[in-house]
Write a structure and sequence with these properties.
homodimer, 137 residues, alpha+beta, Arc Repressor Mutant, subunit A, 3-stranded antiparallel sheet, 3-stranded mixed sheet, 26% strand, globular, binds manganese (II) ion, binds zinc ion, DNA-binding, transcription regulation (chains A, B)
DNA sequence: ATTAACTTTGCAATAGTGTTGCACTAACTT
DNA sequence: AAGTTAGTGCAACACTATTGCAAAGTTAAT
């Protein structure tokens, strides 16, 4: 993905593109899976943890990425679809491979609609499936 | 719940009842919601964190309690049903109230059956719904 | 261009959760 | 009773997440 393209994307979500942000976004977009702060930190030795952290937070607030808490101990982040506003209808299942630790967005599997008991209201959900991915099987 | 009853329960799951274990189990059973290590620690000042931690781990291994990772930052634990073996068919949805931080087992809502793409196998899942509970509404 | 105002980054420190080694004690076995 | 095993308390540690603050970079206004 072109840097220019990324910057347009960020701007369209009201986030000023900076070198660091573009780099973080690019990495997430290109690897195509959910990455944790530590994962990202490893991929570019030189960049400060807190800088990446703040980039992710900014992205999250502006629906550029969504967090995935896969139970591995660190929250991971994956790029959102263009139209995503991270509301309950945009959410999908995530798959966590217990062998390789990779976490994948199952965009083809929206989170099923749940009818809660009287009195409960909800606006968010996480549906994580743990198992073995084709690559590890 | 009687201590004797608890001890029988633990024994039936091959866990030797001790004062600490009985206490931890009793607390989880009586509060009827999922509690974290820190929650438990608070409830009985005198008991060591690591002791509670190990009790929970032992319980978990023997299907006496199940972990709930509700995204709050600490894993919580709730008592299992008698027949539970924590396999995919025993799992249910959990509700996390973002106002009060309480996490509740929705035992009436089993985790829906999901058809994954070819090549994926799974044996566990977490389905957390975030919203506001009746008490906080 | 120069200054002022605002934003982003790097660094260091901190809080919180989870986890383990080790020594001590309680419980169980023979 | 002596030996063996299991459970507990304490302290230390690893790791994730988060923040204050100062330095560097950007933008906007004179
Ligand atoms: Mn996703
Ligand atoms: Mn439950
Ligand atoms: Zn895998
Ligand atoms: Zn509530």
């Amino acid at each position: 993905m072109e840097n220019k393209e990324i910057d347009k994307k960020l701007e369209s979500k009201n986030v000023k593109p900076t070198a660091m942000r573009t780099l973080v976004y690019k990495t997430l977009a290109e690897t195509g899976k959910a990455l944790s702060l530590a994962d990202l930190e490893q991929r570019f030795e030189k960049v400060e943890r807190s800088t990446i952290f703040r980039a992710l937070k900014t992205f999250e607030e502006n629906f550029i990425v969504h967090p995935v808490d896969d139970g591995s101990g660190s929250v991971k982040y994956a790029v959102c679809d263009d139209e995503c506003t991270c509301n309950i209808h945009d959410l999908h299942v995530h798959f966590y491979c217990t062998r390789c630790g990779r976490t994948r967005c199952m965009k083809e599997l929206p989170i099923p609609n749940i009818k809660l008991p009287e009195g409960y209201t909800y606006d968010n959900a996480q549906f994580i499936i743990n198992g073995v991915c084709p690559r590890c099987d």
